[in-house]
Amino acid sequence: MSETNKLQNAEGAEEKNNTTNELNQDNSINESSTETNDLQNENNSVSEEEATVNEENSETENHQNTEQPQEKIKPEVKKMASEDDEVINEIEESNAEDAEDEGNKDRHTIEVKEYDSMSLEALAIEFEKLLKNEKIQAIKSHVNTINETFKTKFQALIDEKKEEFLNNGGNDIDFYYSSPVQKRFKESYRDYRKKLNDHYKSLEKNLKQNLAEKLEIIEELKGLINVEENINTTYKHFKELQERWRNTGPIPRDKYNNAWNSYHHHVEIFYDFLHLNRDLRDLDFKHNLEKKLLIIQRAEELAQDDHAMRSFRELQELHKMWKEELGPVGKEHREEIWQRFKAATKIINDKRQIYYQEIDKVYEKNLENKLEIIANIDIINSQETNSHGGWQKKIKEVEDLRNQFFNAGKVPIKVNEATWAKFKESVRNFNRQKNAFYKGLKKEQYKNLQKKLELIKIAEDNKDSDDFDVTTPLMKKIQSDWKKIGHVPRKDSDKIWKQFKGACNHYFDKLHSKRNAANKENLEAFNKKVNLLEALKDLKPSKDKEKDISEIKDYINKWKDLGRVPNDKRYIEGKFQKTVDELLSHLNMEKNEVEMIKFESKLDNLNASDDTRNLDNERSFIRKKIDEVKSQINQLENNLQFFTNVDDENPLVKEVHNNIKAHKETLKLWKTKLKKIKELY
């Protein structure tokens, strides 16, 4: 809870600006205010009496002025007296307002909540509770605050929704946004205005009747001093008039003080008239003095209370009792008790002013916080960002700062509008930059969309192809290209992805279906090769080498004719090759001949694979080996040149010749292998 709201909830700080003339401050109820103010012009039936009242009040004031000693008053004393008069006038004006409509005073007891920190939904609910549970005339200041807070927060929401609409490609002129909570709030506000207007219409009629009644009482008071009857009877009539005055309802506030002053003036005249019977007058004076001393005692107790606003509200009630419910006291006590009451009033008001100063300090601190928040938004605005991720981070930061601003509490009223305008301008600057970025991003996204549409066309054109060797790499490539292309407009993203994925899935489902059929054949080939391998292992060499070689080659050809095996079963190829090697090793054959038989078997395995890279790698390997052997032969032949005068039977020379011969045999074998592998291309 902010410090401001703590103070407001504890004491009702909003009364600083709303103590007087609240009914004339609400534009939302101009009609009812106008109707109420018509009282000033419509009561023609009592205009003559009112003129008399005003004249009598003037006489009373002149009489009071003549009683004051004519001495020079110091400026500081004048200032203090002026301040005292101001607080007395404020109290009387507030009491006049409450006197016009007694339900007004309930506003002091209604809790002022942290409306600034409430959501739109919570504000609407709080408004409805006030309408249901409180008197309509007592919730005006609360409704005004709720209404202003709701409008501010809802406008911020509209700005946010509008930005989102524009970012998604919408046009400014087409934007429209409404919310259920707004509709709910407006319905409550219409209900509030209707009830308030109905209340004031009813109040207006009663105010006129009550004013006429009180003016009639004043006229009857005037006549008491001219009635020739027993003084006790007259006094009894006087007390009845006092009781009627107290029981008569509220009157228009602009007539309140004049009517009361006139009434009080004629009450004092009547008490002067009672000098013929001092017992009755003194009895009343004594009663009034006792009551007023109790009021003073209570006021002096309140002056010691630290709850400034609560004390001031009770002080207003004490002033109302002093003025409306009690009559005069003896002249010897009037000035003394009034000065005591004023002194206590001044102490309470001074504490209230100190309390307001503390609130002002809190408001100033809130202002500092809000200006700092605005400065932080401006700092974010000055940072250059060129990525979607960067902008998303900035959006979250600004949203957090916006929430901090709304929850920072009230600021001094004199800078409230300027602070709000400065905040809105900073947020608008942020939104302009953000919108400019995303507009540029949309252009790039549109280009990406065109690229992906081209890939979709390729996928759909080839999804039914049966040329799997050519189409499969193509489909894999466009899938890879798709991943490399950036974002497209959100509204198109899901649609084109489903279209592209559908075409690709159609092709690969077809491919897998064919491969599954091939795998069935491969599994059958594997089972046959297992049986053939077992038969080969059982083969026993005979003494006829040619026959054995022919039989082994026959097994190799049968093995090759059986076809491919599943990839996870290719280990059987190695087992077959190992078995062949073992059989050949038992035959009396040339090394190169055996090597070629093994090589031809190896080539058959390589050629049976779908991946031609293995065959390519084998060819590259053979060529490399040929180059190496040639290089070695050249080196050995060069070495012989160092033995020009040496006999060929020399052991070193013989070793070199033997090495050259061996390398040439090896070279011949590698060349034979290269020739054999070329036949497969």
The H-and-E topology, N to C, reads as HHHHHHHHHHHHHHHHHHHHHHH
Mean pLDDT: 78
- Overall 3D form: rod-shaped
Q: Helicity level, as a percent range?
A: over 70%
Radius of gyration: 54 Å
Largest sheet: none
The share of residues in extended strands comes to under 5%
Give the number of helices. Answer: 23
Which parts are unreliable, with pLDDT below 50 for 5 consecutive residues or more?
1-80
Q: Tell me the distance between the termini.
A: 85 Å
Q: Which class of secondary structure composition applies to the elements?
A: mainly alpha
* Overall number of strands: 0
Structure description:
The protein is an all-alpha fold and 681 residues long. Among the domains are: 3-58 and 75-367, no CATH class; 446-503; 613-681. It has helices at 3-11, 15-18, 30-37, 39-42, 47-67, 75-100, 120-133, 140-167, 180-224, 231-247, 253-273, 278-303, 308-325, 331-382, 388-406, 413-462, 468-484, 490-537, 545-561, 571-585, 591-608, 613-640, 651-678. Helix 9 runs antiparallel to helix 10. The chain is rod-shaped and about 175 Å long. Residues 1-80 have low confidence and may be disordered.
How is the secondary structure organized here?
Elements: H1 3-11, H2 15-18, H3 30-37, H4 39-42, H5 47-67, H6 75-100, H7 120-133, H8 140-167, H9 180-224, H10 231-247, H11 253-273, H12 278-303, H13 308-325, H14 331-382, H15 388-406, H16 413-462, H17 468-484, H18 490-537, H19 545-561, H20 571-585, H21 591-608, H22 613-640, H23 651-678
